[in-house]
Amino acid sequence: xxxxxxxxxxxxxxxxxxxxxxxxxxxxxEALLGSGFLGNWVEAESSFLFFSKPSRGRITRLLAAxxxxxxxxxxxxxxxxxxxxxxxxxxxxxxxxxxxxxxRGPQQGLMTILLDPGVVFGNCHHPTTQACLKALSLxxxxxxxxxxxxxxxxxxxxALAAASLGxxxxxxxxxxxxxxxxxxxxxxxxxxxxxxxxxxxxxxxVAAEPANLIVANIHYEVIKGLLKKNAFCETANLIISGLxxxxxxxxxxxxxEFGFHLIREWDHDMTWYTVLAGR
Length: 279
Prior knowledge:
Layout: E1 15-22, E2 37-43, E3 46-51, H1 56-65, E4 70-78, H2 79-82, E5 90-92, E6 95-98, E7 111-114, H3 127-142, E8 147-151, H4 157-164, E9 169-174, H5 177-189, E10 196-200, H6 203-206, E11 211-217, H7 220-228, E12 235-243, H8 245-257, E13 261-268, E14 272-278
Parallel strand pairs: 6-7, 8-9, 8-11, 9-10, 11-12
Antiparallel strand pairs: 1-3, 1-4, 2-3, 5-6, 12-14, 13-14
Helix pairs in contact: 3-4, 7-8
């Protein structure tokens, strides 16, 4: 029997061509965008359409078919520039985050996570992501993670880290369809399909579900609203990140009001704050 060697994972394109369109595309609109189309980032009532090659002609045909849409602007970035670097393996103990197009063998004492960020932000270079990874590993050293909710999953990196640390179940949610697609691809890459479920939803839709741990690296206003609704009442441990200094002070006060105590906090240059709290 001849064994088929797995195909090498394709590296990212060198350049990104981005078209900002006023309006939101339908699913069937993407059929007009051709093989160079990489994804659609929806922001409010606008769509950022990503391509690996110049595609003004494709955009013109799309606008002709859907007159309700309007081209607002266009941009050109090198992929590495768009991602802010971050194309090399990165160690954030106990994790080794590796782009899947690079060959990197296992390293003793580290858990390897394959991460293809695509055109979504979340390549682990932001300090809030790194602090969340440290907080996850701290919780896992003290207690089994059990069921984990990852609110605002992005590329799925925190859900993947939770699964690597032994979580029995992870629900990873994001409202952005492109994030959902990217996270689902990374879940499959790492063989966690049976553990991590990726869902298109608002954090408000799932935050009240029972969980041993919730990770919320999301906007301050969303976190504040969830706390006001006591949405975390079924949660033993909570990691909140993405906070600026003044927001951090407000959130820590609110956490204490709802029965949480602070276990650990991280700050980056007194600008970005991450909080680990428990009951």
